[in-house]
Each structure stands twice: as C-alpha cells, then as structure tokens.
Design a protein that fits this description.
CATH class of chain B: Mainly Alpha
Radius of gyration of chain B: 22 Å
CATH architecture of chain B: Orthogonal Bundle
Structural class of chain B: mainly alpha
CATH superfamily of the largest domain in chain A: P-loop containing nucleotide triphosphate hydrolases
Strand order of the largest sheet of chain B: 1-2
Largest interface: A-B, 28 and 23 residues
CATH class of the largest domain in chain A: Alpha Beta
Number of helices of chain B: 13
Number of domains of chain A: 2
CATH topology of chain B: MetI-like fold
Shape of chain A: elongated
Distance between the termini of chain B: 22 Å
Structural class of chain A: alpha+beta
Strand content of chain A: 35-45%
Oligomer: heterodimer
Number of strands of chain A: 20
Strand content of chain B: under 5%
Helix content of chain B: over 70%
Number of domains of chain B: 1
Largest sheet of chain A: 6 strands, mixed
Helix content of chain A: 10-25%
Shape of chain B: globular
CATH architecture of the largest domain in chain A: 3-Layer(aba) Sandwich
CATH superfamily of chain B: MetI-like
Amino acid sequence: MSDAIELVGLTKRFGDVVAVDDVSLSVEPGELLTLLGPSGCGKTTLLRLLSGFEQPTSGSIRVGGVDVTSQPPHRRDINQVFQSYALFPHLSVRDNIAFGLKMRRCGAPEIARRVAAVIELVSLEGLEGRLAHELSGGQRQRVALARAIVPEPRVLLLDEPLSALDAKLRREMQVELRRLQKKIGLTTILVTHDQEEALAMSDRVAVMTAGRIEQLGAGEAVYHQPRTRFVADFLGESNLIEVRVVSVSDGEISLESEGGWRIAAVLGGAGSVRLGIACTVSIRPEKFRIVREPPGGVNSISGRVEEKTFLGAMLRLVVDAGSGRRLTILVPESDQTAAFSVGDAILCACDRRDVVVLDL
Amino acid sequence: MLTPMVLWLVLFAVLPMAILFVYSFCSRDDLGRIVFTFSLENYSRVFDPRYLHIMVRSFGYASATTAICLIMGYPTAYFMARRSEKIRERLLVLVMIPFWTSFLIRTYAWIQILKGSGLLNTVLGSTHLIAAPVEWLYTPAAVMIGLVYSFVPFMILPIFSSAEKLSNDLIEAAHDLGAGPLRVFTTVIIPLTAPGIAAGVVLVFVPTMGMFAVSDILGGAQVPLIGNVIQNQFLQARNWPFGAALGIVFTLLFAVSYGLLQRRPRWDRAASA
C-alpha cells in the first residue's frame, strides 16, 4: 500500500524569490490532495521538491516516515505524470510503461506480467506496439499514467495531467483518474490551476498563493467557507463586498457596506468581533435568488439588470445595485427566462447563512 | 520548379560522374591523353596492395578522426544545447567563427603552431612538460590534429541540433522512473540524439576519407591518404582513367555507408514529418 507524506517547514528560494514559503502539510495514505493556485503560486515548485528535481532551501520531506529530502529523484519511490506526458518518443507503449520496472531490474516475466496488467487497467489493449506520436491525446495520457503507476510507487504526482485534453475528454478523464486512484489506493498529489478539476477529483484541496498554503480542506468546505479574499475569489466566482461590523448578537452579525446596504450573516466559530471593524464578505453568485417581495429575515438588494448571459443551464446576470456596485448572480435558466431583460429592475435575496465573512 | 533543379543536377553531378565513369574504363597514351578502349585494368589496379595499403591507412585516419571528433564533439554539443537560448546562440557563433576564414589558410596556420619553434613547443617547453622541442610537423600526429581540427564543427553541429530538440522533461521522466545519470544517458539521451550522431559521423568520415590538403600541408608527403593518390593521378601522374576508377570505387563506398547511416528511426521520421 501507499504511504503518508509529511512536509515540514519546506522552503525554496530562487535568489531573492521565495517560491515555496515555509509549507507544512500532511497527506494521508491513499489520499488525493490537490495543490490549487494560479501560475507562479509555487505549486509546481512544491511538486518538484517532492519529486526531487529541486532541493529545498530548508525543511524536510518524509514519505512513510522516512526522510527522503536528500534522496535524488531516481532513488525516491515517487513517480510523476508530467504535464507534457514526457513519453519516450523512441519507445513503444509497452517499453514506455516497462521503463520503470527495467530500471528497477525486474525480471522479464515479471515485467511482462505487470505491464500487461496495467495496460488492461488503463484500457490500452491493442496499442502496445505503437509509438507515442501514433496515439491520441487521451491515449498518451493513459500511457503516462500507466508508466507512473506500474512500479507501484509510494506516492504519485500529477502535474496538470489533463490540461492538454479538450473539455469533454478532460471531464471523462477526471472521473476515470479518480476511480483508478481510489482503486489502487495510491497517495496522490495533483497540481492544477483548474478549480473544477480540483473540486471534482480531490479528497482535500490546498489553495496556494505566494508560496504559501492559503487554505486547506475538503473541496466543499473550502468552496463554501473560504477564509480569505484570495480563496473566495480564486475558487469559484464570488461577490466580494467591503463592509463594517455594525452589531453582533446571538451568533448573528450585522454588517453595512459603504453604499448603505445592510447585510446579515451567521457568525461561525468563536472569533471575537469588535464593532466598527472593517472586513469583506463573500457571496457566491448562485446563492442569490430573484424575489418579487422583500422577504423577511433574509438579505435583499434591489438593482437593475445590466447584462444577461445565457450559459445553458444557468443565466448569469450582472446587476447594477447602485452607487457603482455590481453583483453577479446565477439563476437557473428555467426559472425566470421571460421575466427579465436588460434594464429591468429586480430584487435579489440571499440567505444569511450564505454570507461568508472573510479575513475576520 | 523541378526542371531547373534537374538541369542543375545533370550539369554538376550526373554529367561529371558519367564522365568519370566512362574514363574509368579507358586507358591513357604516353602523353596522358585518354584512349577510349574498354578495360577493367584500372579497377584491378585499385586493389593493388600498394593502393590497398593507402586505402586501409585512409580508413584508419578517417575512423580515428571520426572517433576523436565524436568524443570531443558530443559533450561540447550537448553542453551547448542545454544552455539558455541566449548563451546557446553565442556558443553556436563561436563554433562557426572558423568558417569565416578559408580552410586552407587555417590549415597553413597550424604550421606556425606545430613547427619546431612553434607555439605548441613553446608552451610545452615553458611548462617543462618536454625537455627538447618535439618535431610535430610532417608527422601522422600533425595530420590527425589537422583533420580533427577541420572536422570537429561538422560533428558538433548536427549533434547540437538533435540535443537541442531533446526535451528536459524526458530526462526528468527517466530519472523519475528510477534511472541514475548513466542509465538516463544510455537509455534516453543517446538514442534520442542518435540521428545527430549518425549525421555527424557521415559529415566527418566521408570528407576525411577524401581529404588531401591536410595531409599535404601538415603531413608533407610523409603520410599520403587516398585523397592524395587520386589528386596525384589527375594532376601529377596524368593518369586520369586510374584516378577516375579510384574515384568511382570511393564514391560507391561512400554511397553505401551513407545509406546505412542515414536510415532514420521510425520515431524521428515521424517527429520531423
């Protein structure tokens, strides 16, 4: 079976640039953890520290309790699926997959048996003799995956593994990759900038920015309860509103924005809140609904439809809420199609539970 | 258009070869004029022990030159190809600079370096590596130095071009899968730069076999190579038919070795298609 990973105070500097800044992280055996962030956030460097292609400036990496920090890449039982797939162009599918086993000096019968098994696992039967350039994008992806898992590493690293595929295939491969990963029970670290991929595939997501992990948790938790402005903005779409605390009572907090809009939110956790303090709230576009009457006990705001975009199942509306503030809201297309067109006045409501107070 | 190219080829390649081919079956009169008879005598002379000996020596020199060029050129080309683009371009210019000067002039320049009171002996003498000046000039060593010097860029350039195309991801992937530095080299780097090696070997070996200027200038007349023999037949001995027969035999040998070395692997043909 696979092993736990433990990163302790991992830092990597390139000259003056701190690419990875004091990252500590534990990954459970068999878990799929995603490092999610924009380009330049340090996720790729963190992955390269794990694979051994970069040496950390300080900190350590343990796999299954053993410190591997000073081991070169070829001695670590960590295999990677490269973004470019990096299939050896001069070797057949079979020889690509067998490469790791040959390097480990397995016997020919064992290699043949294990390669055949993994080829079946990733459904590449019949393509064993092909060269990389004779395969489709999805097939190459499977070969890269098969090549990385056949030596039975302790940890699998996936570097933007699906970014070269078209949208439909990418979604199929997300499901398939996740299914395979669960089946083998392999500890896996996925690096991606695609939030949908992160949410669809991971047990936990680590949102990274500026070399640090900004928030770590299950996808749903990070999505619904972002702790910082960056997370709320990067993971999914969000309406971010600058507010000031007006009153606190009974686990409920009352806030006011500059334009005079009053927002009520449920106060999560035991944070001490001082009156008058400035903070930001995040409201997801899909948490709004369109109402006819101002409902009691929930937040509501009136405005004018400025833009209307048809997205298929959903409609995206940009609402001008006065004093230069704009809200983006998502409503089911079936809901209100005929009722609204650009320029109409509407009333939007959202539950106080759906208002997330950030940076408090 | 196809026609000008065909014309060009006929005029400058096919026709001269045809003339050479016809001459190689002729004989000559006492004044060196061509007598159009049909005889295989020239070809049987090619395999005369005297010429066979020179041929074997030429083959030896060409093989040694190719091997030394490969040993010197491969690491150089690989090192160059792994630099950043800016440095890569500058290094490439350094390799090409010698081509700005005539090959003959550069070979004559080596006389200044290799002669008894030349640069090489001065340097070696001042470092006390040698007690007395060594006579380098007009020795096989001088010929080897001249040949390697002349042809090493032709080894570097094709290897550089294939090493440049070698993606770093492939090297890392091999490391990642458990290959140490040596095995990465033998299982990934060598096979993927093999087309460059093959091209370099052809580009060095073939002209070295036919080279006569270097052995003339730096070897005196001490180490005639097959190129010198052919040149002599045409210019001094005035035995054009025999020179033509030697030329034809060598052209055929080259064609065969070129054909063998240029068979590109399936992956490489597809990659550049």
